[in-house]
Amino acid sequence: MKKFRLVVCCVLAAALLAPGLAYSAAFSIFDQGAKAVAMGNAFVAQADDPTAVYYNPAGLTQLEGTQIAAGVAAIWPKAEFQASKKDAALGTYYGQVTKTNDDEFFIPNFYLTNKYNEKVAVGLGVYSNFGLSTDWPDNWPGQYCSGATYTRIKSYAINPVIAYQPWKFVSISAGFIANYMDAQMENNILMPGGVFGPDGHMKVEGDDWASGWNAGIMFYIQDEFRLGASYRSQLCHDLVGDITVTGNNLINMQSGGTLDINLPSVLQVGASWSKAPFTVEFDYQWTKWSNYNMLQLNVDSTGAVTEIDKNWDDAHAFRLGFAYNVVKNLDLRAGLAYEPEFVPNETLDLIVPNGDRWTWSCGFGGQYGKWVADFAYAYLYEDERSFDNEAGDVYNAATGVKVGRLVGEVQEVSAHILCLTVTRKF
């Protein structure tokens, strides 16, 4: 029985790590302020509202007095999988299409800023910059792949910052980030033929705090032209939690475990030109996903350590934003962003497969007295990807023998995003 349990644990570890935590990786959340979202998140050289705490804290020296902003981003993701190979063990047939269940998640954010004097400003941000909810049908052909029936990740960052303007033409800033991550993944465990009893169900949960930092700089070249840059450091999480298997007495178990994951550093640079009534900004964003080169899982009950190479490439995103001042205190905005795929075919997974990503956005903002309201809508679409690698391998949990591979195409990966930010000036 002990040997049997060890086989089961090794199979579970392999299943858990095969796709990794791509839901946080392929779905980084940059939607931290409605004004920025409406402009395709091309905002690092403007950063002229309290969301500058996230986008570029050097912009805080522009803000007068004390300002409080609160907002929410509502995201509705979806995806489809089309099987391209018949597999009796998985119940797939050529052309079979499975859609994710309808789901949504809401991401709040909060910012507080204060201009201490003519040269110094401080701020505090509370937001989520990694997260996802993916919900596939319980009995779909990919049900035995890790996290492929249900995955949800939540993260919250607490980010105090300080900005300093030594000369009229430049501002600099730095901040500390305390980041909390809570993850949950579920999938079924194959016990084929009924010989070993019914299929099992695996649930993995874990959480952790990690620390990092951010910094920014802004150059005021002239009244119309600005340059900005911001940097967010890598976050190293050691998720600690439980692995629970139920539904079959042979494999029922509960064990503690840890999962080590490195989230990437991010550099964003941009240029903004503004001449009434128009504003245009172009940004380039570099995300160091090569930090995400390996996952390591430690299973407490067996002492097993499993390492899986991910070997992701760095990501390069290009963002373009426009704003038009219609009348006093009313702006219309639009944006476009493009990010080529950065996950290799060998390590692509089902949780949120990464393809070439396009994002179209629009919105508006208005001010009434000391109140400001900004609204944005964005549509995100990723190109289809072929799926045929080890992340789709399915094993007999009783024997550890591979019984099949899920092969097909992930398509219609998209999301609708609505954002609202309300700011009060004091």
From TrEMBL:
Membrane topology, from the record: Multi-pass membrane protein
Keyword Chaperone carried by entry: no
Keywords: Cell outer membrane, Membrane, Signal, Transmembrane, Transmembrane beta strand
Taxonomy, superkingdom: Bacteria
UniProt subcellular location: Cell outer membrane
Residues making up the signal peptide according to the UniProt record: 1-24
Keyword S-adenosyl-L-methionine: no
GO molecular function: long-chain fatty acid transporting porin activity
Chief site of localization: membrane
Family per similarity comment: Belongs to the OmpP1/FadL family.
Protein's name according to its UniProt entry: Membrane protein involved in aromatic hydrocarbon degradation
Organism in which the protein naturally occurs: Desulfatibacillum aliphaticivorans
